[in-house]
Write a structure and sequence with these properties.
- This protein has no helices and 29 strands.
- The protein is an all-beta fold and 287 residues long.
- A four-stranded antiparallel sheet has the order 4-5-6-7, with no helix packed on it. Strands 8-9-10-11 form a four-stranded antiparallel sheet, with no helix packed on it. The protein has a four-stranded antiparallel sheet with strand order 12-13-14-15, with no helix packed on it.
- The chain is globular.
- 46% of the residues are buried.
Length: 287
């Protein structure tokens, strides 16, 4: 299990026991989630560098410096790692050697993480634009919302729909090829949480304290569940249940069909971290 912390470290823990294996220190806090691929762990740091670390030994394989903080979580596909930086660029870096294959200039800091399609990439920026780029880094279309897109888009391949939240308080469903808006759903406050789409339903949190389940095709509300604090954590779904954290300090498990609570676990601080589910275990960090 690999987890990033604001104490500047990425930790490797035994997933069964939680026993410490190794840690690697950067020179800044690590806001994003690690990307694990081909026995490598890739992380971005507030020290403006993206690191590729050997998953077994914790030794560095390569580093890729940028001109801004890297808060976008890296994504690996097509032999490359894609990530954004506060320097307003989206990077495509060779997974083997860390060389920059291309970088695309966007309008704002990129804290959103990339959704990867068959041959297209989708990402948001802090000026409020959602971009669609081809795998060579050429912008195909963009759609502009009224506030920052910190939320990471998700692609539903069946519907050919991109779902993303904006700090303007709206969740958008956009046609993946053209960027046309298929639907909009208004929440009460900013949407920083990244949606997930499972079996035709999009799940997302909002700073209005609610978790929402929306029909992915239409944006129609299926159910909502109110926590006691902002839900900036991104939900994860497994085995008929949704898992998500809240600023109120709790981790929630909800029934995916009805939104009724299955259980909640109170931690000692706000839960902004997003859950990871593996073989009947939920892993999540707390402040």
């Amino acid at each position: 299990l690999f987890v990033c912390s604001y104490d500047h470290n990425v930790y490797a823990l035994n997933a069964t026991t939680g026993k410490f294996m190794w840690k690697y220190a950067t020179d800044g806090g690590i806001a994003g989630s690690p990307c694990v691929t081909e026995d490598r762990v890739i992380i971005g740091s507030d020290d403006r560098v993206t690191y590729c670390i050997n998953a077994q030994s914790g030794r560095i394989a390569w580093t890729c410096p940028t001109q801004g903080r890297v808060r976008s979580s890296p994504r690996a596909q097509f032999g490359h790692v894609f990530f954004g930086s506060d320097d307003r660029r989206l990077y495509a870096v060779n997974l083997q050697n860390g060389r920059v294959s291309w970088k695309a200039e966007l309008d704002g800091s990129v804290r959103s993480s990339v959704a990867v399609g068959e041959d297209l990439l989708y990402v948001g920026d802090e000026t409020g634009s959602l971009y669609c780029l081809d795998i060579r880094g050429t912008i195909k279309w963009r759609y502009t919302t009224k506030r920052s897109i910190t939320s990471s888009p998700v692609l539903d391949p069946e519907l050919q729909l991109v779902v993303v939240g904006s700090q303007d308080g709206t969740v958008y469903g956009l046609d993946a090829q053209s960027g046309w808006v298929v639907w909009r759903f208004r929440t009460g406050k900013a949407v920083i949480s990244s949606p997930c789409v499972v079996d035709g339903v999009a799940y997302v949190g909002s700073a209005d304290n609610n978790v929402y389940a929306l029909e992915a095709k239409t944006g129609r509300l299926v159910w909502k569940y109110a926590t006691e604090g902002q839900v900036n954590s991104s939900p994860a779904v497994a085995n008929g249940a949704l898992y998500v954290g809240s600023i109120d300090g709790a981790v929630y498990s909800l029934d995916v069909k009805t939104g009724t609570i299955r259980w909640r676990l109170y931690t000692g601080g706000a839960v902004i971290s997003s859950p990871l589910i593996e073989e009947d275990t939920v892993y999540i960090g707390s402040n």
